[in-house]
Amino acid sequence: MNYEIEFVYLKNEKINMKITKNLMVFIAAIFMATMAFSADLGEARKVYSTQLTKFEKAPQKFGINVPPDGVSEVEYPSGKLLLKAWISSNAEKNANRPAVVFLHGGFSFGNDDWLASQEFVKAGYVLLMPMLRGENGNDGNFELFGGEVDDAIAAGRYLAQLPGIDKKHIYLAGHSVGGSLAILASQMQSPFKASAALSGYPRLLEWIDHFPRTIPFDINNAKERNIRDPYLYATSVKIPLYLFSESQNVRTISASREFCGLVAKSSYCQHEIVPGNHQEIIVPAIKKILAIFKEMPH
């Protein structure tokens, strides 16, 4: 192709720029590609689906977890995958209870994750904790904030079709890696009324680049990076978003405060610092989340 740009300087110091037809087509193509990633994460993910370069399971070991009393292991569909989850058995056919999907930290689920989130059950919520694609022997491959976002939303849709669930009060929350997924999910259409991220990290590409061995896609592919970057879609947040940062992590506080300010220009975002370290904030942050959810309009 001829992408010639010819500049002619005239006596009146104006610039006459002659651009060939092929260059105009090229610029239009670049513009359209940019627009695909400019505003809405859901639309961007429709245009581009992640292309894995490694087909592996999640990079974290897991043990054999037996559901305790009052908990059932179920399967929920996510696209063509059938994935495992634990659900509290306090759902009653005529109870119409609120419910929450809680996304565990790290890349595998364990009994300790379930125990850490029991404040939701104590408050009367039906709790569903999904295991995502490639985790804990599940179908599918590890995508590192790719299809796992779809799994989180699919878990909410699974809850919505169960008897005894108040479909208008299904919430999303997550800790650490799960918190970052909760941020991305808030930028997609979903059945959730609100989303809360505990120690999630909005500067997600910075986090991903820090762990190159875990990356299952071409890190130099701009489209792969774009669909995992919450900052590109700060105007795409569709539900109230609540960010909780541990007081001992200045980097997370800075990123969350900055990102929440961007989100607040077009949606609702609240950021709060909770005393403690990465693990210590889980229970007190959940108690704060419960108070917030309780005050949300019905």
Give a brief rundown of this model.
32% of the residues lie in helices and 22% in strands. The protein is an alpha/beta fold and 298 residues long. The longest helix has 15 residues, at 21-35.
Give an overview of the whole structure.
The protein is α/β, with parallel strands linked by helices. The protein has one domain (36-295): Alpha/Beta hydrolase fold, catalytic domain (Rossmann fold). It has helices spanning 21-35, 41-47, 111-116, 118-122, 147-160, 177-186, 204-209, 222-226, 250-263, 282-295; strands at 5-9, 15-19, 71-78, 81-88, 97-103, 126-130, 165-175, 195-198, 241-246, 269-274. The strands form two sheets. Strands 3-4-6-5-7-8-9-10 form an eight-stranded mixed beta sheet, with helices on both faces. Strand 1 (5-9) and strand 2 form a beta hairpin. Mean pLDDT is 88; it is low at 1-38.
Keywords:
single chain; 298 residues; alpha/beta; Rossmann fold; 8-stranded mixed sheet; two-stranded antiparallel ribbon; 10 helices; 10 strands; 32% helix; globular; disordered N terminus
